[in-house]
Amino acid sequence: MGYILRKVVLFIITLWAAITLVFILPRLMPGSPVDAALGKLASAGVPITNAERAAIEAQLGAPHTNLLAQYGDYWKSIATLRFGTSYSFPTQTVALTIGKALPWTLFIVGTTTILAFIIGTLLGVYAGWRRGKLADSSVTIGATFFGAFPPFWLGLLLLYWLSFKYGWFPIKGGYDPGITPDWSLSFMGNALYHSVLPGLTLAITTLSGWVFGMRNNMINTLGEDYVTFAEANGLRSRTVALLYAARNALLPNVTAFGLALGAVIGGTVLVEGVYSYPGVGNLLYLAVTNHDFPLMQALFLVITLSMLVAIFVVDLLYVRLDPRVRSST
Amino acid sequence: MSIIATSVPPPEAPGASARVPGGPAGAVPGPLRFVGRALRTLWSNGKARTGLIVLGVIILVAIFAPLLAPDSPTATNFTPYLGPSGTNWLGTTGNGQDVFSQLIYGARISLIVGLCAGALATLVAVTFGLISGYRPGLVDEVLSFATNLALVVPGLPLMIVLTAYIQGHSVWTIVLVVAFTSWATGARVIRSQVKTLRAREFVTSAVFSGERMFRVAFREILPNMTSLVAASFFAAATAAVLAEASLEFLGLGNPATVSWGTILYAAQQQNALLTGQWLMVLAPGLAIVLLMVSFTLINFGVDALSNPRLREK
User: CA nearest A274: which of A174, A105, A152?
Assistant: First the structure.
């Protein structure tokens, strides 16, 4: 119980710190993001009401008021999901814009993380088991190269060859432009088809972390006495590798989920922009290219919160996986 | 890119042998001798040797760029949007610049950003890790919390937001932003290593002989973690090269500087792929991959130094 309580407390403090960081950042920066935001809104033809100005100032900072009062307003605006209006999408609130994009990104990040974890871990087990052999070197060298691929670069190349040149996959978007999103099977199929290339790009570029982590864990575990004992008992080497070593080597790899998620999220931002995939990453790309500070600010907050929640869930799951964590206080 | 030796038992660090207390001062100064020995040990590892050679070639290209490049990287001498030809091996940009010359000059920026941001991030990581590991209690709690916070805040989005708010987009902005966002992994690894070293006899004896805290931390403990610090450096440098290219690709770099990231940005802006200029995308990306791979390969050698189980037979 002590472990879970400590994790909950840590989660709450981290949450507070992350939200406060987002409050501090625009206020430290030179220039006035608020004026820039209001100016852009005005030039986009959006009428600026007092409520609008207040919402944007709560997010980005009002120059002449008390910082503490600003901090209170900031929390109020977050609790009520009022992030102001972005000039990239002036007809809807920022919260709605992000809300529409979030499921796409959650889907693609979720599937690719699981996919990369399974494939990467298996490759790592294989490389660790056959260490020093040709299989080990080819897996290690291959993972080194794939891990160094900039996600947007691989995305561009796959897009060029597989979509543009051969037409196997759609050029852009999350679904065909003619159809409307619903829960029908045909739409889901269409969306899945559109997500193959972005997902593949992300999975390939984030695979290497799992491979290296698992390979090193395997090598360390294979040196343990109980593995030698199992071998001495005459068990087949595949049985020893998979049932004795891999199971125990897997555990430390699970803790790397948080860091791996950071890499996938970073990759999503770049890859969604390349494929015009209708997710949060593409929104951030648009926000950055349009200097859309309210949208950018809110997106960063949402991305950080999602990551915190995901790490928190992994921490809780870890209790179920490793009994030693449960007993230690 | 993770630091590969995260969960290894305390190593019999080879750095220890370099710290010969009261050893006779030879003709060669100590630090140089140490660097020479470290390089020799790395050279004996096949992967690290390949990495050192690739890195060496890239450094030479960066230094001798004016001799190697057929044209100026910024001069708009040619017809825009040319495909690959005998004079312009990789074609020309929309402004009529030679892409191949840009590729050669671009090595300079990527190297500077990678090495500087890597060094800066490592400096922060070492300072935080050493102090945090050596001072349990409140100091450790505060520093560890800062480290954990920096670990869970998604790196690239933070870099994007920071760079977007800072108006002037010079290369040094990117160096600072990347260093600021990528020190945490190293700090955590170094902290746990310091915690184990702290319990060793040689540290205890140094404390009992009346050494001050900073001297113990930086003169007794730090030299025993050379390989770990080197691993942090190369991991941070790898991440920095990727981060720089990503930020520049998103248009957050200075378009006037010529780097591999800005070539990719220009290629995307002029739809190079749709006009068939795919070499303009392929080449700078490959250069980035090669530089990152060279760092990672060197790190394999460094990891093998610190973890005998990973050593090649």
Answer: A152
The continuous run of DSSP H or E covering B202 comes out as: helix B201-208
Residue showing tokens 């002029």: B270
Identify all chain A residues contacting B157, using CB atoms and an 8 Å cutoff.
Answer: 265-266, 269, 284, 299-300, 303-304
Chain A residue nearest residue B5, CA to CA: A216
Q: Which residue has the tokens 């990527």?
A: B110
**Structure token digits, residue B173:** 């902005």
**Residue type for B6, please?**
T
Among all residues of chain B, which has the CA nearest to that of A262?
B154
Six token digits for residue A171: 């050029």
**Residue A154 phi, psi (nearest 5):** -60, -40
d(CA A301, CA A13): 15
Q: Per the structure block, which two tokens stand in for B10?
A: 């305390």
- For residue B278, the model assigns a pLDDT of 81
d(CA A152, CA A134): 31
Q: Name the band, by pLDDT with cuts 50, 70 and 90, for residue A30.
A: low
CA distance B238 to chain A (A): 8
CB B93 within 8 A of CB B80: yes
The answer, yes or no, to whether ipTM is higher than 0.90 is no
How would residue B27 be classed by pLDDT, with cut points 50, 70 and 90?
A: low
Question: What is the C-alpha separation between B123 and B140, in angstroms, rounded?
Answer: 18
Check pLDDT > 80 for residue B24. Answer: no
- Which backbone phi and psi does B92 adopt, to 5 degrees? -125, 160
Phi, psi of A137 (to 5 degrees): -65, -40
CB-based contact B213:B94 (threshold 8 Å): no
